[in-house]
Amino acid sequence: MSTPFLSSEEYDERAHVLYNEAQYDEALAMLREGLRLYPNAVELHVGVGYARLARDEFAWARRSFDEALVYDPDHEDALAGLGEVLLKFGQVDHGMRQFDRTIELGYEDDIDLMLQIGRALFREGFVDNALLYFERGVSQASDSAEAAACVGYAKHRLGLDDEAMTALRRALSLDPEFAEARVYLANLLYDGGDVDSAIAEFDKTTPEDHWDELGIWRLMELKKSVYKLTDEDPELRPWEARLVELTGELDAIDELLAEVEQSFAEQEHAAMSQAQGHLETLGSLLSGLAHQQQAARVSADVLASEGPHRIVMGDGSTFDGTWDEIVQALRDARSDGRPVDEYMASESRRHYGATGTLIAAHAPEAFIKGSADAGLLRIVR
Predict the structure, then answer these.
(1) Neighbours of 235 (CB within 10 A)
(2) Boundaries of every domain in the chain
(3) pLDDT tens by residue, 158-180
(4) Class for domain 1-105, per CATH?
(5) Among the listed residues 209, 207, 199, the one whose alpha carbon sits nearest the alpha carbon of residue 176
């Protein structure tokens, strides 16, 4: 429905509200309506660019940012948006120049812009560059908890955990209600083996503060071990409910299918046992042949599932062996003395914190293949 008599600024403001509520389709419709009346309005073109970017329509987003820059070549938000799109297209140098241009134009004191650029770089894996923009934000607004926390996230991604915890504590001193920073700090403390401090931080969070199931599992584990809670303790119920919200649970049909599958497996096992009994009566010759064939199959299965495998890391280093041996070698290469399961969980959380993509950490094979899917390594065999 048309909204007459609105200025281009009013269209932009209304679209901005919709954008902040993640109503990207509605925001885009509002901006298009505005552009029909004000085709040269730079802010509307910039708004379309960000709405397109939020919908992963990168080519269209680039077009909108380019159009905005035709009307205003020095528009800082258009430069930042175009830089992010160019990173998506792999045009890294060109994208970095757009970000650098905002500094040249004197926008270093715009903390929101600095954090926006830093996050764009962080998401694409340019953590060193992201840290520079986060630190610019801190230098311009030393009272910003958000800027301090971003520095902490980047420091952790770079393996500087002590500095990361210092930055996160700084963020929490500025804003004690900053739940994201507190959960992150608690996990870092847990990874570092400081159980007492970890549970102290976890205890200050609520189930709704958590969006990563790993943190909830750790919190429940600590509560059970430190406070001697049983699995049935009412204090754990809200956390279990939050886990269900994040991971889902079996509905009635899923449970029925699981029961049927289990019953079928039991019947199949019984049939195989009976068949094995009959085979044993065929005589020693056939029995020996069967054992030889079975041994050959087992050997083939072991070779297929246990190795030797080879992976190649981003820096060109290679690791050979079974999945278990490769993960142990990766852990040892980082001089990490923790058990393998804790190492995998820590690396999974580290990658999740940087990209939002969770790598499976329940078994070495799943961890390696998940890391390959995330682009962290390449499986040769």
Answers:
(1) 12
(2) 1-105, 250-305, 307-381
(3) 999 999 999 999 999 999 999 99
(4) mainly alpha
(5) 209
